[in-house]
Each structure stands twice: as structure tokens, then as C-alpha cells.
Design a protein that fits this description.
The chain is an alpha+beta fold. 25% of the residues lie in helices and 19% in strands.
């Protein structure tokens, strides 16, 4: 693993290139949107009415991620507003349990899924420290211990530091994040996927949920928050709920209030995009 000093130097050198690439990608996407609107203008009225009747929740609305190659619907553009820094994947390392107070050197690529690092009888909370406010989440280590363990593992290795909450969808009321390499849902992920834990989940405001592709067992690192009752429109089951907001639901609601459409009605991003500065794990 590179030293912390060397890692920071590499990140600074890549930040300028990443910002330029983001701007170019955003401009290209906007051009494509304009072309698409012209091409489908005759059918738009029907499509919009159908979307309103369904209330969201079709395949294009679902909180997918391309952490495995199965999802061809995701986009790779960064969120608008503050430009987050993308980082290279780097060489994968053998996973080992990080220190409880967080690793000194950030790691975002691993050779395989993590070992189990949680302690029996300990309750875990995750505090999302963002530039829009803090969000405190109680992690469910009883129903979904492996999923919670994966999240704690990544958070303590600094995986989520500086990541954008890059996607918002007002139809199903979700806010998605957790993509350090691309700051978009086409992120390659941490180098592994984890098994779906449990078979049936329903969704309510404040849930912290793993994103995944349409394929089973394809979650890795990306997550989404349910920010309102619209998330109940998702088909029960495929997305694993592994935590619940205990403080900061108002922060999520305020972020969602800044939503701007960037494509299909209801599909877009916050403006400005909120940045997760770090995720602190608290034991009790």
C-alpha cells in the first residue's frame, strides 16, 4: 500500500484531470439528452403520463449500480454542483479488518470480500459526515450482519471518504452514493460483490439500503437512502435494508428538495451535489 503522503499527492495530481474529464462527460451527456429529446418528442406525452400513473419503480427508476457488468442502464456522469474527486482503482490488496478508529491509509480495491470484523454483543452506528449535515444511522447487525460488516469494513478503510451522493430520484424518493472511482453509478466497486442477505424487504423513509444490479448477489459498496414514502413503490425484496436513520432524516429531505431532473422525469441529481466527507463508525 502507498504511504498516506504519496496517496494524497497522487489524489491531488489526479483531481485536476478528473475535473476536466467530468466537465467533458457532462457536456457530452447534455448534448445526448438534447438529441434524445428531439428524437422522441412525439412519444413523450404518452411516456410521461404512463410514468405518472405508475408512480415510478420501473427498471429505469431502480437504484442500480454497475459494480458488476450486468447493468447496462447506469450512467457514468458525476453529479452537478460541487465537483467531487475521482480516484484510480489502484492495485487490489488482501482484505483484513481495519482498526476500529479507521485506517491511516485509504484502500478502495480488494482482492476479495472482507472477513467478518464485527464483535458480538456490540451495536454499531454509522455517522455520514456530509457538507449538507450529518446523518446518523443504526446498522442492523442482527438481521443483516454480513451486509453491515461489509459497510463498516469499507467505511473504516476510508472507501467512502470524499464520495458524492450523486443520484436522486423523486419518483421512488431515493438518494444514492458510494462510488469513489467514478462518482457515478457506473463505478467498478471495491473489487468484489457480496451475497444478498435475506429474501424480503419493504422500504420506508430513513432506510439505508444496498444498491445492486438486476443480477442477484451483485452488491458491493454503493448504497441508497429511502428519503420518503415513494420508495415503497419498489418491488419488495431485492435490495437489502441494513440500517435505519436515527438522526438526520431532515438532512436527507433538504437534499432531495434541491433535486434537478437530468433525464427522465424524476431522475436526476441534487444541486449542489452533497459530498460525504467521511463515515464514522461508532460502537456501543
Amino acid at each position: 500500500m502507498p504511504s498516506e503522503k504519496r496517496q494524497r499527492q497522487k489524489e491531488r495530481e489526479q483531481a485536476a484531470r478528473a475535473a476536466r474529464a467530468v466537465q467533458q462527460a457532462r457536456a457530452k451527456r447534455r448534448r445526448n439528452i438534447i438529441i434524445g429529446i428531439v428524437a422522441v418528442i412525439g412519444a413523450f406525452g404518452f411516456a410521461f403520463a404512463y410514468s405518472v400513473i405508475r408512480g415510478g419503480g420501473d427498471d429505469n427508476d431502480t437504484p442500480t449500480t454497475t459494480e458488476s457488468p450486468a447493468d447496462d442502464e447506469a450512467t457514468d456522469d458525476a453529479a452537478a454542483g460541487t465537483t467531487p474527486t475521482t480516484i484510480p482503482q489502484g492495485d487490489p490488496v488482501e482484505p483484513e479488518c481495519p482498526p476500529t478508529d479507521g485506517a491511516d491509509e485509504r484502500v478502495t480495491q480488494f482482492t476479495e470480500a472482507p472477513p467478518f470484523c464485527l464483535e458480538d454483543g456490540v451495536e454499531y452506528e454509522a455517522v455520514f459526515v456530509t457538507d449538507a449535515g450529518d446523518i446518523r444511522v443504526a446498522l442492523d447487525t442482527e438481521t443483516t450482519p454480513e451486509t453491515a460488516n461489509n459497510f463498516v469494513f469499507l467505511a473504516r478503510w476510508g472507501y467512502y471518504d470524499g464520495t458524492a451522493m450523486f443520484r436522486s430520484n423523486t419518483g421512488i424518493e431515493i438518494l444514492q452514493g458510494g462510488a469513489p472511482h467514478t462518482q457515478g453509478n457506473a463505478d467498478p466497486g471495491p473489487g468484489y460483490t457480496i451475497a444478498d442477505e435475506g429474501e424480503f424487504f419493504e422500504y420506508s423513509p430513513g432506510d439505508l439500503v444496498m444498491a445492486r444490479t438486476p443480477a442477484p448477489n451483485s452488491s458491493g459498496a454503493q448504497y441508497f437512502f429511502s428519503t420518503g414514502p415513494g420508495t415503497s413503490g419498489l418491488a419488495p425484496g431485492p435490495y437489502v435494508v441494513f440500517g435505519s436513520v436515527v438522526e438526520g432524516l431532515d438532512v436527507l429531505e433538504a437534499i432531495m428538495a434541491t433535486h434537478v431532473d437530468t433525464g427522465d422525469p424524476g431522475e436526476g441529481e441534487p444541486d449542489p451535489v452533497p459530498i460525504v466527507e467521511t463515515i464514522r463508525i461508532i460502537e456501543s
